Amino acid sequence: MPATGRLGVMFSGLGAVSTTLIAGVEAIRLNLAEPVGSLAQMGRICLKDQAADRSPLIQKFVPLSDLESLRFGAWDIFLDNAFEAAAKAKVLDGDLLTRVRPALERVKPYPAVFDPTFINRIDGPNTKKGPNKRDLAEQLRVDMRNFKRENNCERLVVLWCASTERYSQPTECHQSIARFEKGLLENDPSIAPSQIYAYAAIQEGIPFANGSPSLCLELPAIRDLACEMRVPIAGSDFKTGQTLLKTALAPAIKARLLGLSGWYSANILGNRDAEVLVDPGSFRSKEVSKLGVLNQILEPDTYPSLYGKVHHQVTVNYYPPRGDNKESWDNIDLFGWLGYPMQIKVNFLARDSILAAPIVLDLALFMDLAKRSDLRGAQEWLSFYFKSPLCNPGVKPEHDLMAQEQRLHAMLRLLGDQSQS
């Protein structure tokens, strides 16, 4: 269980999120910044009264890999190294990028598995070719082995940080491992690139987390394979800004039993992810992810007069002048005593990748911890980080942010106690 040796962190997608994370880790290594937003690095955990230190740092209580041990790799459809990609993303200022440039320039992307039928708003030259999707998966596995060997890593984690694929539903080939592997060989058109990455990582025994709403880990074939290979998986769709606030505000509204008539959520941003969402198929994936949180929190079947007729609407608009600087507006129409109306309005402005980067870091460290702890399958305790938490069959996802945090801390206490026993 100890976190010995180097941990390799590989991203599908060397874009704004992954380069912001890589640059941030390097800046922290150089004492240029602190890991603000990272629970794994700055968070504390409450222990029993008899503990010598009742509120230790999480990174001191559980055996996490330290930042010095991390090595980064990626796949991308563009040829830019991490420095070039970060400069184009324009998330970080030029002075910081210059100071961490050598480390970023060392991260050069492997050719990516790409299918324009799943993401049709962008295209690039750095893609894998092969006779079938099984061959593409094998190429990814070779990349993982080569990266691990070349960087002298003991372990790897893989995170999907690429653009949102078009909305899709499971088909016959997703229902079992055998059918999925047959589909790979036969180039089944319903098998998306994200699913190929997940399959390849799990076959290599590598933890995999899905940071997008793309249909990937929810499939019976992938779930079964993860359990069979004793691999932890987690997803889906990083919970960064608007949905983070929604999963904090909705429980407060319910706690006071205030009624809810409608919740309108609007977003503008101009990065590559937003450009992809112009496609209705890709936006549908994001819309489903964003819309899914309120029902579970508010329990409309239990409180039909308060939450039975909520009009919940979400829009995401691609606005190039903003780049990665996302702005969201929420208009919440409530009613209280005697049915009198009231409103809450929230305006949130933040760089999308600045919100996402510490989530990616935490997931890389916690997924590695899960693997070393012999946890397998859906990691429900990591729901804290996702809009659409991955759960085991028959388990309803938890969306309440505070309940998610409590579950995360409970698992960390368990793993910390095991490591010290």
Element-level helix/strand string: EHHHEHHHEHEHHEHEHEHHHHEEEHEH
Which structural class should the secondary elements be placed in? alpha/beta
Strand content: 15-25%
Poorly predicted runs are none
- Quaternary state of the chains: single chain
Characterize the biggest β-sheet: 7 strands, parallel
Strand numbers in spatial order across the main sheet: 3-2-1-4-5-6-11
Find the count of extended strands (DSSP E, 2+ residues). 11
| Approximate helicity band | 40-55%
Distance between termini?
A: 12 Å
Features of the shown structure:
17 helices, alpha/beta, 40% helix, single chain, four-stranded mixed sheet
In short:
The chain has 421 residues and is of the alpha/beta class.
Write the topology of this structure.
Layout: E1 6-12, H1 16-29, H2 39-42, H3 58-61, E2 70-76, H4 82-89, H5 94-99, H6 101-105, E3 110-111, H7 133-150, E4 153-160, H8 177-185, H9 193-203, E5 208-210, H10 220-228, E6 232-235, H11 242-255, E7 259-269, H12 272-276, H13 280-291, H14 293-298, H15 304-307, E8 311-318, E9 325-335, E10 341-351, H16 352-372, E11 377-378, H17 401-420
Parallel strand pairs: 1-2, 1-4, 2-3, 4-5, 5-6, 6-11, 7-8
Antiparallel strand pairs: 7-9, 9-10
Structural commentary:
This protein has 421 residues and is an alpha/beta fold. Helix content is 40%, strand content 18%. It contains 17 helices and eleven strands. The strands form two sheets. Strands 3-2-1-4-5-6-11 form a seven-stranded parallel sheet, with helices on both faces. Helix 10 links the parallel strand 5 (208-210) and strand 6 (232-235). The protein is globular.
